[in-house]
Write a structure and sequence with these properties.
The protein has helices at 2-20, 22-26, 94-102, 129-135, 157-166, and strands spanning 37-38, 52-63, 66-78, 110-119, 122-123. It has 167 residues and is of the alpha+beta class.
Length: 167
C-alpha cells in the first residue's frame, strides 16, 4: 500500500513538473524527429561538380520566441581525394554544420533554414529519410569529437594551431 501511495505521488509530481516546465512548451526537450526539419527561406543554390558542397547553409534553434542562429551562410567544397578540416572556437558551429549536412540536427528545436548540402550532386538538406539512411555511415559519416583531444576552449584557436605546427 505504501508503495502505491509513493508511486502515485511521484507520478503526480512528474505530471505537474512537465505541465509547468517552460522548456517543454518551447519544444526544447521534445523527442527529435528522425530527420532534421527544413524550412528554406530562399532558393536552393545551383549544383556543383564537387564531391561534397555546402552552399550558404543556415541552421537555427528555436527556444520559445527566441531564435538562435547556430550556422549562418556556411559554404565549402571538397573535391574527390581532398581532405578538409573544420577548425573553430568552442560553440562556433562546427558540429551543427556537420549535423546539418547529415540531416541530424535535433528537430525540434533545430531547423535548417537555407542553403544546400550536396554529396555527389544530391542535395541532402530536405532529402527523405530513406535516402539519408542509405547514405549515412556507408557513403558519408560524421566522426564525433573526442572531448579529451579537442582544442582547449580557453585559448585562441590560432595559438593552439601554431603550437601544434611548431612542435
Amino acid at each position: 500500500m505504501i508503495f502505491l501511495i509513493v508511486m502515485s505521488i511521484n507520478l503526480l509530481g512528474d505530471g505537474v513538473r512537465d505541465a509547468l516546465d517552460p522548456r517543454l512548451r518551447s519544444g526544447a526537450l521534445s523527442r527529435p524527429m528522425a530527420a532534421a526539419l527544413v524550412r528554406r527561406n530562399g532558393p536552393v543554390p545551383e549544383a556543383s561538380d564537387d564531391l561534397l558542397a555546402l552552399q550558404d547553409v543556415h541552421t537555427e534553434f528555436h527556444a520559445g520566441k527566441r531564435v538562435l542562429r547556430a550556422v549562418s551562410g556556411v559554404s565549402l567544397a571538397v573535391k574527390p581525394g581532398e581532405c578538409l578540416g573544420v577548425i573553430g572556437e568552442s560553440g562556433s558551429g562546427k558540429s551543427v554544420t556537420a549535423l546539418s549536412v547529415m540531416g541530424l540536427v535535433a528537430s525540434p528545436p533545430g531547423v535548417i533554414t537555407g542553403g544546400a548540402a550536396r554529396f555527389k550532386g544530391q542535395d541532402m538538406i530536405g532529402a527523405d529519410f530513406e535516402t539519408l539512411r542509405r547514405l549515412r555511415g556507408d557513403r558519408i559519416a560524421y566522426i564525433f569529437q573526442d572531448p579529451l583531444a579537442t582544442l582547449h576552449p580557453l585559448y585562441k584557436v590560432g595559438r593552439q594551431m601554431a603550437e601544434a605546427i611548431q612542435v
